[in-house]
Write a structure and sequence with these properties.
mainly alpha; 65% helix
Length: 110
């Protein structure tokens, strides 16, 4: 059952011997699954790890912003959306989320 999230799972993904962008995508997808079942804090951990592994992963940054808003951490969320807008000036999703008060559905790998 996904709600019984093993705390070692993110570390196992990070420890995989594969390309960093593959690890970041895996962490992003795991975070998306956590958001979908309402596990916002666990999703935030996954998205933070994805961004640490690949700071240019805009999907993970947008999802991190959404997860942070679910947790009521609006200033942190705003910083993530601002960073996506800096990395991808044409990112409408980040712009819309940054100036919206409600979290959006998480996005998978782009």
């Amino acid at each position: 059952k996904l709600s019984k999230f093993p705390t070692s799972l993110p570390q196992k993904v990070v420890g995989l011997s594969c390309a960093p962008d593959t690890k970041a995508h895996a962490m992003n997808n795991l975070g998306v699954m956590m958001l979908k079942i309402g596990q916002h804090a666990k999703a935030t951990v996954c998205f933070h790890l994805a961004v640490q592994i690949d700071p240019s992963n805009s999907a993970a940054r947008v999802n991190l912003g959404d997860a942070l808003r679910y947790e009521g951490k609006y200033d942190e969320a705003d910083r993530e959306f601002a960073e996506v807008m800096r990395l991808e000036p044409d990112s409408h999703g980040a712009t819309e989320r940054r100036f919206s008060s409600a979290p959006s559905k998480a996005t998978g790998i782009r």
